[in-house]
Amino acid sequence: MPKRSEYSVKLYDSINYIKFLSFSFKVPNNLKFDEENLGRETMICQWHSKPAPGKGWRAYKKYMKYNRPSVALYLTTNNNQDYYLLLRYGNNGKSQFEKKDYKWSTITVQKIEIDKWHDMMFEIKWSFTNAGYIAVWMNNEPFTPFNGMDNRAYGPNMHNESPAYFKFGQYRYWDDSNDQEVYFDELRVGNSFEEVSIYENLPKMFQEIKELYFIKNHK
What we know:
Blueprint: E1 4-9, E2 18-26, E3 41-48, H1 57-63, E4 71-77, E5 83-90, E6 104-112, E7 117-125, E8 133-138, E9 141-142, E10 153-154, E11 165-171, E12 183-190, H2 193-196
Antiparallel strand pairs: 1-11, 2-7, 2-12, 3-4, 3-11, 4-5, 5-6, 7-8, 8-9, 8-10
Organism: Psychroflexus lacisalsi
Pfam families: Polysacc_lyase (PF14099)
Protein name: Polysaccharide lyase
């Protein structure tokens, strides 16, 4: 069985750009994992880096060996009854990478219903620093957790100056013998919530940020 069935979309989201993307997906109720693959993850979508400007894939593979995508959304189950969506974000931290201390982290894990359409919306700011962030909504509700100030997960998300490209569709372990399907619809890319939302009302925004007032205790 093939281990991947993906479509790629060339995006041109460079440093300090804020972009919005949405799509809908459905996991049919006949999707099952092998017993050996329970607890493993099937990729739903990802943003993946490319070679640095002026470099080719040979140099990329040499210096970014085993790199992971900057953003990845996965499906997983431990029992073929309860299914979960898992979001990872950041950089891979491999030893050859000059920003090796920047980690690729699990941001959130949420249970989903199978045989039901789920609407995903992403807001991403691309950066080499902690100015970068991702915010995600599922079914018009915040998917990324509240951090005490807003629902963004902050951190670097670029391996080099080349814009990441977007891929959606399954990418799974090669040794799962089951046929698996995931359905996609309503892919939208834009510069605002209005351009990518499929809802009449925009999603709930971040929880209101409270203004902080600092008292200067000096003369």
